[in-house]
Design brief:
Keywords: Oxidoreductase. Residues 6-73, 133-218 form the Cysteine-rich domain. This protein is 46% helix and 7% strand. The protein contains 13 helices and six strands. It has two domains: 20-107, no CATH class; 121-264, Rossmann fold (3-Layer(aba) Sandwich), CATH 3.40.50. It is globular and about 55 Å long. The relative contact order is 0.15.
């Protein structure tokens, strides 16, 4: 989010500020390793997340906006809670005991139950916008996290209160290929084309994603003649709140230009 998805990062910060959430970035944080480290070296993947957990201050939840980070953080937290050996390794590596009370939250968990329309004075700034909600696969719970809350449907719930209409389609939880985009781009293109075509067939004007990696793959690996703009959830929320002053900087990073669509709906 700090590099290839800067538009996601900036709109996320602006939106949180607009609804009264104060974000404090973790100093000297490191990448969670995502799918790459997890697939190659499980101990390294564990340590990458554990270091962040060790540095995070007590008494505050750890907020993630990336489904992959959420999955890695929650799995590591769960493993530390369940395994005495993991807690011993944690203390040996980082010099502090594991704090089980540290809560890991995804962005969805933060805004679930909030009435976002209250910040638009009850108006519906997204009225007329028809979109396909795309969650991807990383928010699906692995067996060890089966008791965690599932937030599928939250995109539709929140954007619906702002006037947007979600289509019924087949691609909402299909994997975009994640890091196979680097190792097997031809395989990713086939998968992505199927997802985007499903959105086109459903009558959606755009896709709205919960994941920065998905957004990147859906644009960079699609080679269909008819493509759809792919917007970050944080972007459309920020626009709905009338806080999109820097959209020129955001949208020039999109490979499928969303400006004609957003202008047609009076959002820019």
């Amino acid at each position: 989010m700090k590099t290839s998805a800067m538009e996601n990062h900036e709109s996320f910060k602006i939106f949180c500020e607009a609804i009264g959430i104060r974000l404090v970035e973790l100093p000297d944080w490191n990448c969670c390793g995502s799918s790459s480290a997890h697939s190659i070296d499980r101990e390294l993947a564990f340590d990458l997340v554990a270091r962040n957990l060790a540095m995070a201050p007590s008494g505050r939840p750890i907020l993630t906006a990336c489904p992959s980070c959420t999955l890695r953080f929650k799995e590591t937290h769960h493993h530390l809670t369940e395994s005495a050996d993991a807690r011993i390794r944690f203390r040996r590596q980082w010099g502090v005991p594991f704090d089980e009370s540290k809560k890991v939250m995804h962005f969805f968990e933060l805004i679930d139950g909030m009435d976002i329309s209250a910040f638009t004075n009850g108006e519906k700034p997204l009225s007329g916008l028809t979109y396909a909600p795309y969650y991807g696969c990383m928010l699906a719970r692995p067996p060890q996290l089966r008791n965690q809350k599932n937030f599928h449907g939250l995109l539709e719930k929140i954007l619906g209160t702002l006037g947007a209409k979600a289509v019924t389609w087949k691609g909402s939880t299909k994997c975009c290929g994640t890091f196979l985009s680097v190792a097997r781009p031809e395989a990713t293109t086939e998968v992505v084309n199927g997802i985007v075509q499903s959105g086109v067939d459903s009558g959606a004007e755009c896709l709205i994603t919960a994941c920065a990696m998905c957004q990147l793959n859906l644009e960079i690996r699609c080679n269909l003649k008819n493509q759809l703009p792919v917007l970050h959830f944080s972007e459309i929320l920020t626009l709905a709140l009338g806080k999109g002053e820097n959209t020129d900087q955001w949208f020039k990073r999109h490979l499928v230009d969303p400006k004609p669509l957003l202008a047609a709906h009076g959002l820019i």
